[in-house]
Amino acid sequence: MKEYSRYYYKNEKLITILYEFGSENEMIESGFLRNPARTTCFTSSGKHYVGGHFEAVKTKTKIIAVDFDGCLVTDRFPDIGEEIPETVGRLKEEQRNGARAILWTCRSSDQLAAAIQWCTERGLLFDAVNENPPDVIAAFGRDTRKIYADEYWDDRAVRMP
Q1: What are the φ/ψ torsions at residue 38 (nearest 5 degrees)?
Q2: What pLDDT band is residue 58 in, cutting at 50, 70 and 90?
């Protein structure tokens, strides 16, 4: 048995999961056919599938994707500008309250290394840099090109309705 797909509804209280089985016996032995949450069961291309709507049990922690230049420091690219204490302080506070942070920047190579070092020296540690954390990749079943976050902190952001 393997999880074939997963979909969280907007309210994140229900989740639809579809499981794939290699044989009919494996599907029967799993017990999913007797699960009252099961809503579908079908066979396709020699594979057997069982799915249903289940109560979501994932724990949700806020993820913040934060830009470096113009957000954590004044924009002096390729150099590192002056610290913006309000943003750095707020990010540290969010992390103390359980939020996870992704450094989300256009910097690469030596300039990225310098930005990471600057952050580390100030006690800013990140769950990922310019990529999704492993648990987000697992939740989507693949790595997405877009960084997934609940909040995007960027000096060039425009709030849309």
Answers
A1: -65, 130
A2: very low
Inform me whether the pLDDT recorded for 127 exceeds 80: yes
What is 51-62 written as a DSSP string? EEEEE-------
Q: Which residues pair with 14 in a beta bridge?
A: 55
Q: Is the pLDDT of residue 138 over 90?
A: no
CA 89 vs CA 83, 84, 94, 107, 113: distances in Å: 10, 9, 9, 22, 21
Residue with tokens 């256009």: 106
Residue 22 Cα to chain centre, angstroms: 29
132, 144, 88, 93: CA torsion to nearest 10 = -60
Residue type, 25: N
Question: How are beta strands 100-103 and 128-129 bridged, if at all?
Answer: parallel
Q: Minimum mean pLDDT among 36-40, 79-83, 114-118: which range?
A: 36-40
Q: Domain 63-153 carries which CATH code? A: 3.40.50.1000
Domain segments of the chain as ranges: 2-55, 63-153
What's residue 14's pLDDT?
63
The pLDDT value recorded for residue 33 is 72
Type of residue numbered 110: D
